[in-house]
Amino acid sequence: MFAAIFGSVEQGIIYAIMALGVYLSFRVLDFPDLTVDGSFVSGAAVAATMIIFGYHPVFATVVAILIGFLAGCVTGLLHTKGKINALLSGILMMIALYSINLRIMGLTSENSIGKPNIPLLKAETMFSEFKSFWSPLGIDTAINNFLTMVGFENLPSTYGTLFIMIIITLIIKFIVDWFLKTEVGLAIRATGDNKKMIRSLSANTDTLVIVGLGFSNALVAFSGALIAQYSKFADVGMGIGMIIGGLASVIIGEAIFGTKTIVRTTIAVIAGAIIYRVVLGLALRVDFLDPGDMKLITAVIVIGALILPQYLEKRREKRRKAKRHAERLLEHEQLRMKERSALAKAQSD
Amino acid sequence: MLKLNQINMVFNEATPDEKIALDQINLTLNTGDFMTVIGSNGAGKSTMLNVISGALSPDFGVVEIEGKDVSRMPEYKRSQMIGRVFQDPMAGTAPSMTIEENLAMAYSRNKKRALKKGVDKKRRELFRESLETLHLNLENRLNAKVGMLSGGERQALSLLMATFTQPSILLLDEHTAALDPSRAELITNLTKQLVEKDKLTTLMITHNMQQALDLGNRLIMMDKGQIILEIGTEEKKNLTIPKLMEEFQRIRGEKMTSDKALLS
Q: Do A318 and A232 share a structural domain?
């Protein structure tokens, strides 16, 4: 149980980078960008292919990020210059990337042009590289000894992945926070908030949408590249429903932790991604559910995340109103009593 | 400063809904001119403003700003030189962003936006000082989201944002029309104050005759896409509403009396 939840948390932190990308497009730019399903795989495919070719995993990941950026920019171009509906430009890019991803992974095969997956079983990844630095430190055994003492069983073999991912994801979070406060970032936020206004303040909203989507998909591809290295394979189907998962993370996080400031919202999105993965992981442990049910479970979680906050908010509001009303009634009553006693006093005088 | 040369604009051309929005408009504003524009609905006032700002591009004709032909310049580039306030108080500000963030975006209107902090200490001080001139206590609410402000407060902020970088031209499109009378008066006074401070070249559309007479040094009346009356500085000083109505009647004849209501 502990190991299963631990794995979900690890994955959740990696997927959180993707969720931050979805937050940028969906919330900040107000652009429902479905490119994500394709650009996530592109990140994975590029990283896996380059690792197979013997490039350093970090370099492979950086290239994956750039490819994600490009994919987002193309979606932005389709929408702004091609005047194609936002949803449709994302969908077009998503299916185009499907073929492109097959071809990217096909580069590793001599017999065929396209290839649906790449295993990375024996290859060096960012995580295995970090592990060789981490293991000699002896932190894993220390933590596990402690946890066994407290009575846990089935402990994970290493905490290095979790550690490095927390660092990377927090760095990304700080970059996003900082970026959204720069002059360009402010203009991008205003583009999602009030296009007419920011155009009247001499900002090229087309460029901002393109750059914004590029940044968003760069994060998504980064997450894809990391997931490929974490799970040691890239698969052309690994991005299906990714946007829904990202959206679920954003919505769950926002509903639980609020959206008061950007700093808070980005941490909420990260927490949302972790919660989402844990819930998904727990759901899959239920006996009658099969891994094939995952997308169905995803859909149910997202529907719940969309409906529940509304319902809770309404109930909270109603209770608050009822309480306030009762207080006011009491105040009135007290006021009337006072008046009456004052009147009685005046009469008796 | 601003020159409109033979501007023509037709909507829904060659359909039964065809409408000549602007018909050979010629107009020159000198530096520091403050012109008020009146006319009934559909006269072409807003279309003219949109042609100047670049939101619409005219079918024919040339728009010149500071002696430069800007007819082909996209809206966002032209906005470097043009400040705008819209009728809808929601239109001029970004509701989910804070007051200081909105001002920061106005501040970088005529500069290249870079990857540096939008609001730093120095700018915050500058924003605070400018907000103080509004006397709305907004200087103490720099981190409040603009969506929480009232319509009047938002419009005052929009006005400040539009004039913040001293644009070559200020366009006001019925910017007090959506406010209650006392708020409208506040914004009108503020407009006067801000325009006079920087001697901004201003074009203001209004449906309020008194406002059209009180503000500015020139006045034009539009109808059916044409400028039918132009009143200069000297003449405007002695202008009254009855006189203007009389003039209006003389030019328009008797047939359109129903529009009188709109102008009173």
A: no
Collect all residues with Cβ–Cβ distance below 8 Å to B141 and sequence separation of at least 6: B99
Report the pLDDT value the prediction gives residue A205, as an integer from 0 to 100.
Answer: 95
- Quick one: pLDDT at residue B260? 47
CA distance A332 to chain B (A): 30
How many CB atoms are located within 10 Å of the residue B6 CB?
Answer: 13
Residue with tokens 């001139």, as numbered in its chain: B133
Alpha-carbon gap, residue A289 to B174, rounded angstroms: 62
A-proximal residues of B, 120-179, CB under 8 Å:
161-162
User: Which of B84, B113, B170, B175 is the best mutation test for A, with the most CBs of A within 10 A?
Assistant: B113
* Same domain assignment for residues A175 and A201: yes
Q: Residue B115 and residue A179: Cβ atoms within 8 Å?
A: yes
**What are the sequence ranges of the domains in chain B?**
2-95+167-263
Give the number of other CB atoms < 10 A from CB of residue B193. 13
The two three-digit tokens of residue B161, written as one number:
């944002």
Q: Is residue A267 part of a domain?
A: yes
pLDDT for residue B261: 45
- The answer to whether residue A143 is domain-embedded is yes
- Tell whether A199 lies on the interface with B, counting CB pairs under 8 A: yes
Instruction: Looking at the structure, tell me whether residues A250 and A304 fall in a common domain.
Output: no
Nearest-by-CA chain B residue for A206: B76
Residue B260 contacts A where some CB pair is shorter than 8 Å: no
State whether B105 and A190 contact (CB < 8 Å).
yes
Q: What is the mean pLDDT of chain A?
A: 92
Residues A105 and A243 both lie in one domain = yes
CATH number at residue A188: 1.10.3470
Give the pLDDT confidence of A95-148 residue by residue, as tens digits. 999 999 999 999 998 888 999 999 999 899 999 999 889 988 888 888 888 888
Walk along chain B (264 residues) and give the pLDDT tens digit of each residue. Answer: 899 999 999 999 888 888 999 999 999 999 999 999 998 888 899 999 999 999 999 999 999 999 999 999 999 999 999 999 999 999 999 999 999 999 999 999 999 999 999 999 999 999 999 999 999 999 999 999 999 999 999 999 999 999 999 999 999 999 999 899 888 999 999 999 999 999 999 999 998 888 898 899 999 999 889 998 999 888 888 888 888 888 877 887 654 444 444 444
* ipTM of the shown complex: 0.89
- A257 and A320, same domain (yes or no): no
List, in order, residues 6 or more apart from B100 with CB less than 8 Å away: B119, B123, B124, B127, B142, B143
pTM: 0.89
- What residue numbers bound the domain in which A341 lies? 296-349
Residues β-bridged to residue B19:
B11
CB contacts < 8 A (A, B) = 85
Total tally of structural domains belonging to chain A: 2
Find out if CATH 3.90.1150.10 is the number for domain B2-95+167-263. no
Residue B114: is it exposed, middle or buried by C-beta count within 10 angstroms (0-12/13-18/19+)?
A: exposed
- pLDDT score of A256: 86
Same domain, A25 and A132: yes
